[in-house]
Design a protein that fits this description.
Layout: H1 2-133
């Protein structure tokens, strides 16, 4: 009986070692599998992150170009508006100058007529005075 117990104990110890060995092998296999899965997932995440960064940079570059073009368009439009306003101002200034020059010419003409009439009246009055005295 003691030998039967000993044999059973040995058999149980061998079974225990065999199960432990199987567990160790299974653990190594599972760790290896999960390690590979984890490495693959990390590599995929890194790759996805890199692609997202590139896409973001492309989007930013595109937006930057669009904004630069908008700024250029606004500057060109403002320059055009400024040139048009300057041109309109010059035209208005020329119209005003012409109008004032015409008014000055009319006033000069009227003044000369008034002076000539006054001179004629003065001469007529002087001639009248001379004729009465004389």
């Amino acid at each position: 009986m003691a030998e039967g117990i000993r044999t059973e104990t040995l058999r149980q110890e061998q079974l225990k070692f065999q199960i432990e060995r199987q567990n160790e092998l299974e653990m190594k296999k599972t760790k290896s599998k999960y390690k590979n899965d984890l490495e693959r997932t990390v590599a995929q995440n890194v790759s996805a992150k890199d692609e997202l960064e590139k896409a973001y940079e492309v989007a930013l570059s595109t937006q930057k170009e669009e904004f630069a073009q908008r700024i250029e368009d606004v500057r060109n439009n403002n320059a055009k508006l400024l040139q048009e306003a300057h041109q309109q101002g010059e035209e208005e200034l020329n119209k005003t100058r012409t109008r004032y020059q015409e008014q000055i010419a009319r006033y000069r003409e009227q003044s000369e007529k008034t002076i000539d009439e006054t001179r004629k009246q003065t001469e007529a009055a002087v001639t009248n005075l001379k004729a009465r005295r004389g």
